[in-house]
Automatic annotation (TrEMBL), chains A, B:
CDD domains: HTH_ARSR (cd00090). Residues 4-98 form the HTH arsR-type domain. SMART domains: HTH_ARSR. It holds the Pfam family HTH_5. The keyword ATP-binding does not apply. Keywords: DNA-binding, Transcription, Transcription regulation. This is HTH arsR-type domain-containing protein. InterPro entries: ArsR-like_HTH, HTH_ArsR_DNA-bd_dom, HTH_MetalResp_TranReg. The keyword Transcription regulation applies. Residues 112-132 are annotated as: Disordered.
DNA sequence: ATTATACGAAACCAAATGGTTTCATGTCAA
DNA sequence: TTGACATGAAACCATTTGGTTTCGTATAAT
């Protein structure tokens, strides 16, 4: 149970970088509900199909979407797993938020439907190095 | 209590983009423990002081660090608050992880000291649009 | 068989990014 | 005051990025 590294593909593209672009974040949001062929996807964006296609490739390289050929179309679907890396990285900074911010954080999490309202925990300041 | 927007500065630079660069992530990691002047900071990196300085500016523009002049030096310190935006964005995808991944997620969170081990929740698939 | 659709690859382009070196300025020390 | 230190601004450069248009190819439809 020690293998916690790269549970999915080889991340040719960085997750942090993949997610840095607003268009690509919207793409992930779109693909949350269902898989979609490229043309349908690109219909939601004010740029060419080819441009969207390239964004999809970046996301695929980061392991954030998977493609599947169906007839003449290529359907993409969300693959949220690599987001864990982001989540883990963020988790490191949890203990450096002051109480005011911790409160805001709880508010946010609750507002998003995550019912872990008793997060508080010990809050002992553990000296540790961040992942990267 | 409705104003949940931009609790800090005007984000001239995007948090997602600020955090996309590995050097800048390392910078945040460095500044976690204490505030530091530029020269000391840049001593930890294989690039010129000026380059580090520019990275610090990007972080500052995103509100992730704050600077403070002390004599002839400028000290930088971490300002983790804008990371909440990232956290909030990520939280949206929590409910789209399958059970296997949810388990891994719990493992990660626990390993990082966040004791919210009973996250499971209803897992009812709520149709909702992501933040961006 | 022919035509239309779905898509990626390629070539191209402008702008942003990440880095450099040089210079000017403010502050501390002798 | 003179010199060293700390720093940001500026100009510059190569590479990456985000977009375009054009073309080729595979599949579906008529």
């Amino acid at each position: 149970m020690s293998k916690l590294e790269s549970t999915a593909s080889s991340p040719k593209h960085d997750v942090f970088q993949a997610v840095a672009d607003p268009t690509r974040r919207q793409l992930l949001g779109l693909l949350v509900d269902q898989e979609m062929p490229v043309t349908v996807i690109s219909g939601h964006f004010p740029m060419s199909r080819t441009a969207v296609s390239k964004h999809l490739r970046v996301l695929a390289d980061a392991g954030l979407v998977k493609e599947r050929k169906v007839g003449r179309e290529t359907r993409y679907r969300l693959e949220p797993e690599p987001l864990l890396e982001l989540k883990r990285w963020l988790a490191f900074y949890d203990r450096f938020w002051d109480n005011k911010l911790a409160a805001l954080q709880r508010y946010v999490e609750q507002a998003d439907g995550n019912d872990d309202s008793q997060v508080e925990a010990p809050l002992t300041v553990v000296k540790r190095e961040p992942a990267e």
